[in-house]
Amino acid sequence: MKVLNKETVTPYNSKETKKEQVAEMFDNIAPTYDFLNHSLSMGIDKLWRRKTIKMLQDIHPKKILDVATGTGDFAIASLKLNPEKIIGVDISKEMLAVGQQKIEKNGYDNVIELQLGDSENLQFENNTFDAVTVAYGVRNFENLEKGLTEIRRVLKPNGKLAVLEFSRPQSFPIKQLFNFYFKNILPFFGRLVSKDTRAYDYLPESVQVFPDGKDFTDILDKIGFKATKCTRLSFGISSIYIGVK
Fold it and tell me: pLDDT per position in the chain (245 positions), as tens?
């Protein structure tokens, strides 16, 4: 693990920026990402996505931006909101290629558009989107506050941000089981299937240094989001964060 400061870890021990390393990592694991993501979470990640989507139903968003969209799972899940347009952006070309195949195969390309894009330099006008979603991506921002500030910029007034992210359970024995699984089981199978020796070590390391819970809602408050809240899922394994512009 390469530690740049007390709040930053990177996938590889290289001189590249975190952003460049994250893009390389996801390019490497793209072919096996969906299989590992769903199997190693035992499918519960799909339930977490549905819960997050429900928190956007009250605003009936017509235009949605999915940041760090990866292979497009959250963008696809957002179709339940009946939007007119969903744009997914990601820094990994290979992840987007996998996502594009899924979208075209299922005939979603009339609503969902995937683009290569940087969360910290979004290529959209101010006040463009009714809602912005990020599923398991904010940990990978090189500059967390800059990325969240960009998200707020492209949201319309009273638009809503919904972030789904891993968090650290605190209660016994969930905390102990979670740590054992994340530090031992997940990296073992991740290395076995993806052939990337670092990607699934980086995951638990990045979770450990991420400012979860109130620490994250405090950052949202600082940036200017209103009505921020954190909802813990599955004993605190993941959390949903909501903020309103």
Answer: 333 334 578 989 888 999 999 999 999 999 999 988 777 677 788 899 999 999 999 999 999 999 999 999 999 999 999 999 999 999 999 999 999 999 999 999 999 999 999 999 999 999 999 999 999 999 999 999 999 999 999 999 999 999 999 999 988 898 899 889 888 888 888 888 888 888 888 988 999 999 999 999 999 999 999 999 999 999 999 999 999 99
CB atoms within 10 A of CB 187: 20
- Find out whether 71 and 98 touch, Cβ atoms under 8 Å: yes
End-to-end CA gap in the chain? 36
State how far the Cα of 148 lies from the Cα of 134, in Å rounded to an integer: 10
Structural domains in the chain plus CATH codes: 2-244 (3.40.50.150)
What tokens appear for 67 in the block? Answer: 């940041």
pTM, full prediction:
0.93
H or E segment to which residue 167 belongs? none
Q: What is the dihedral of CA 188, 31, 142, 223, to 10 degrees?
A: -110
The secondary structure of 5-21 as a DSSP string is: ETTEEESSSSSS-HHHH
Task: Count CA atoms closer than 13 A to 26's CA, side-chain side.
Answer: 24
Cβ(65)–Cβ(123) below 8 Å:
no
Q: CA-CA distance, 151 to 245, in Å (whole number)?
A: 10
Strands 238-244, 226-233: pairing kind = antiparallel
Q: Provide the residue type at 207 as one letter.
A: V
